[in-house]
Design goal:
The relative contact order is 0.14. The chain has one domain: Rossmann fold, CATH 3.40.50.720. The chain has ten helices and twelve strands. Helix 1 crosses helix 7, helix 4 packs parallel to helix 5 and helix 6 runs parallel beside helix 8.
């Protein structure tokens, strides 16, 4: 019997990469539901749009009535990528983040309660843990939740809802928390795509504050392979951190990309720091490595070259 999974937000950056990865590396049939907001682009799905193992519904997971349309079959799992994710936008207006990230997750949990799917994997973020000092150890799955902006607060809220439904109803749910992803199909408002696209056009590249904020970078295909392992082998109620083992300051990332593109450093333009700007993220992923043997395989240099080539082709 054919196994079906439901991917929410599958026209977005990570969701579309995950669908592409799973169609190549698994036998699942995949249903994609996406609201198609500014960051959910149907063009991200063009490489598999006609695949016989794939189908698409346009619907908003925050609207339970719209969401009903996709539950014409029972799914082995729901993998919830659907989210508003841009911190700057959340600072301007938090409401869309509450609707997509909290209400949307709650609706999916209700469908699990109705046995419309066998389990849920909630795709979360290291940002729910808050910020680290430069000398502090990396976040583990046991680190406290301490979000510092409306986006990360909405994701933390969703995580806590998922946890509560496991504790209260014993729902088969799992949470993954990843470090900063990069790769093809990411919206150009995000950090690495903005650097690449601005550099290609010889436009100023904005750099917040002193540029010394540190992020742990994870190539999107490595993230997808980790989620696949959690999908097939993860234990309900568990949290899995997925990190890139690649901490770099924002300025380091910009300089590396400029060097690869042969562009001058004077494209960098320092701007006033963002409100609530977390200083450092770092993810300890020993748990997923010990249980499943996973670790990132794409180096930052390899991944950033692949990413640059994709944007060159898109913007060429």
């Amino acid at each position: 019997m054919q196994k079906n999974i439901l991917v929410t937000g599958g026209a977005g950056f990570i969701g579309s990469n995950f669908i592409s990865y799973m169609l190549k590396n698994s036998a699942y049939d995949i249903t994609n539901v996406d609201k198609l907001t500014y960051a959910g682009d149907i063009q991200n799905t063009k490489d598999f749009l006609t695949n016989k193992r794939y189908r698409f519904f346009k619907a908003d997971i925050a609207d339970k009535d719209q969401l009903k349309i996709v539950f014409d079959r029972k799914y082995e799992a729901i993998i919830n990528f659907a989210a508003e994710t841009h911190v700057d936008r959340s600072i301007v207006s938090a409401e869309p983040f509450i609707m997509a990230n909290v209400t949307g997750t709650l609706n999916l949990l209700h469908f699990i309660l109705q046995e419309k799917a066998a389990k849920l994997i909630q795709i979360s973020t290291d940002e729910v843990y808050g910020s680290l000092a430069e000398d502090e150890p990396a976040f583990t799955e046991m680190s406290s939740i301490s979000p510092n902006n409306p986006y990360s607060a909405s994701k933390a809220s969703a995580d806590l809802l998922v946890r509560s439904y496991y504790q209260t109803y014993k729902l088969p749910v799992m949470i993954t928390r990843c470090s900063n992803n990069y790769g093809p199909h990411q919206h150009p408002e995000k950090f690495i795509p903005k650097i690449i696209t601005h550099a290609l056009q010889n436009k100023e590249i904005p750099l917040y504050g002193d540029g010394q904020n540190i992020r742990d970078w994870l190539y999107v295909e490595d993230h997808c392979s980790a989620i696949h392992l959690v999908l097939d082998h993860g234990t309900p109620g568990e949290v899995f951190n997925i990190g890139g083992a690649c901490e770099k300051t924002n300025k380091e990332v910009i300089l590396h990309i400029l060097d690869l593109l042969g562009k001058p450093k004077d494209l960098i333009h320092h701007v006033t720091d963002r409100k609530g700007h977390d200083r450092r993220y770092s993810i300890h992923f020993e748990k997923i490595h010990t249980q499943f043997g996973w670790r990132p395989t794409v180096t930052f240099d390899e991944g950033i070259k692949k990413t640059i080539n994709w944007y060159k082709h898109k913007w060429g």
